[in-house]
Amino acid sequence: MFVRDRLARSRLYLVLAGGDAHVLELALRGGVDIVQLRDKDLDDDALVAAAEPFRAACAEHGALFVLNDRPDLVEACGADGVHVGRSDIPVAQARSLIGPDRLLGLSVSTLEELGDVGGADYVGVTAFTTPTKEDAVAGGLELLRAAAETLTVPWFAIGGIDLSNVAEVVGAGAPGIAVVRAIRGAVDPEAVGRFLRAELDRQE
Q1: Spatial distance between the Cα atoms of 73 and 34, rounded to a whole number of angstroms
Q2: CA atoms of 189 and 36, how far apart (whole Å)
Q3: Rg (Cα) of the chain, in Å, rounded?
């Protein structure tokens, strides 16, 4: 599938809320490959409306657009897929809602969960603690090293990754990273994106 080919080439993943659309253009110019819209405060209609600039910007830059936690709205939002957490919805149910041709991402926070990712097209592996997801368990570099040895699908280290630690995250074996604050909160999101992308490319 074309979206899976694009996923296989993706290295830099950005998570944004609906109100962060102003960051999109700069982030995508900086090298972001995947953008996830995560906004639990919006109702269905507002989420579909918020998705429009995300979908359009990603299409313009050849990036993938993923919706968080709402497989039931993937079609309405024109998303390329959905990302779910362990407590959100079973993988099989999410797949039945989005169909076989869209991407399904799954969160992993422990060594035990690494062995249970069947049905997912890609995995987000929690590296460090982060205030953007306070309930997430952080596996640290040990979990990243285990993921590098275990996972056969594309995966992204996520959680607390920024300019100061991206090199050690990639050095632990992460083929890609997902960030929130590092780009969203930057004075120059494009420059930060380019820096992170350069660190990822350096480890190839």
Answers
A1: 18
A2: 16
A3: 15
Count of CA atoms in the C-beta half-sphere (13 A) of 128: 14
Give the model's pLDDT for residue 87: 85
What are the φ/ψ torsions at residue 60 (nearest 5 degrees)? Answer: -65, -35
CB atoms inside a 10 Å sphere around CB 139: 23
The per-residue pLDDT for 204 is 61
Q: What is the pLDDT of residue 131?
A: 64
**Residues shown for the chain:** 204
Task: With 0.70 as the threshold, say if the pTM is over it.
Answer: yes
Match 């960051």 to its residue by tokens: 23
Give the burial string for 61-88 (b: 16+ CB within 10 Å, else e). bebbbbbbbbbebbeebbbbbbbbbeeb
* E-strand stretches of the chain: 12-16, 34-37, 64-68, 81-84, 103-108, 122-126, 155-158, 177-179
Task: Check whether 138 has a pLDDT greater than 80.
Answer: no
